Amino acid sequence: MESIYIGILGLGTVGSGVLNTLEKNRAIIEEDLGSPIRIKRALVKNVNGYGHLNIPYDLTITDDINDILDDPDISIVVEVMGGIHPAKEFILEALRRGKSVVSANKDLVSLHGPEIVKTAVENAADFMCEASVGGGIPILLPLQKSLKANQITEIVGIINGTTNYILTEMTEKNMSYRDALTNAQKLGFAEADPTADVGGFDAARKIAILSSIGFRANVTSDDVSVEGIEAIDSKDIQFAKEFGYVIKLLAVARQQPEGIAAAVYPAFVPQDHPLAAVRGAYNAVYIVGNAVDDIMFYGKGAGSYPTASAVLGDVLEIAAHLHHHTTGKNAWLKENNPAQFMDPNFVLSSYYFRLIVDNAPGVLSEISQCFAQDGVSIKTMWQRGNLEETAEIVMVVYPAGDTAIQNVRARLQNLNCVREIANVLRVLGESGNDER
């Protein structure tokens, strides 16, 4: 069979991982593929300083995208440069020229996936992006193929390694949020500006992609409500432990007859739930289908080699399509296929409240009335640590809708006896929609 030539956009952490993994595993890759495969050209910002890669063959390093686009030998373009622009323009132009594309770019796919897939199909090319969600975890292709016979009703993911590392450190080592974040930055798990991770925005982009594929409707990151972990305190971690939970940043998407709901938020996860065991910088995606029931995918969610594994998996899938002349047949995202979103009040959830209140008679009664006025029932309540003039009240309420919970919060804030609403978190698995 003819050789497969690749053009790669970016030789940073992921790009160099792709190059090294291809060389390391070349024998088994080419044996499986049945033809030689090599990276012919690489696009970088500055062509100097890549001698350390020890490339065993002539790889042309360029700062001109046209060197790749104009090369008739290159049939697959790998985009690992990141960002929206100029990555989007480079990808679309490569597809228009009939070159298939593999991308690890969650930002781009979560916003412009349908347009990119449409362009690929129109030009008999493939577009694949397994590495855009979950690093080395194979999840997008199983959703498209292995689970295709299912009606997917729920996707729950721990899909940001930075926040999971931070919360694991807080849980297992009793660290403060600030100290755990500093550790994550020292180890390279968190950026100098960690907002995208700790604010939940990275996870929102990934759950948008998962939802679009799993629910067969276009969900963008703009459709996902987002809460981060910045407000999580060591006290919340401790209360979670005492009550049989761990706190995780979850990306959650549900599909019901009323529509789709997608959100990212920190939540109490029961200690016997499979997601509770996901530690450190690892990721996991938990899926519920009406045939397969519950299934979970687990692995390293980031890093040079795990991500390279996913990228090269897509490359080999496309290479097989090229050999069989079947590229451009999979419109796995479609334009003009908007998702129908459900009213937030249809999404019922149990909640944890932690309040700092006056340590005085009648306070519990006033607080209880705030919940009762919207029909929110208190499941359990504890008063902890009488601190002279103030006390800490912790409670878990039965499943309620978003409006009811917001009304309760507003009433609590207006009570003179409530000094602070220290935190309000959801509780996974205690939902009025599906008690499982």
Automatic annotation (TrEMBL):
UniProt catalytic activity: L-homoserine + NADP(+) = L-aspartate 4-semialdehyde + NADPH + H(+)
E.C. code: 1.1.1.3
InterPro entries linked: ACT-like_dom_sf, ACT_dom, AHAS_small-like_ACT, Asp/hSer_DH_NAD-bd, HDH, HDH_cat, HDH_CS, NAD(P)-bd_dom_sf
Cofactor(s) needed by this chain: a metal cation
Residue stretches making up the ACT domain: 352-426
Family per record: Belongs to the homoserine dehydrogenase family.
Protein name as catalogued: Homoserine dehydrogenase
Record organism: Negativicoccus succinicivorans DORA_17_25
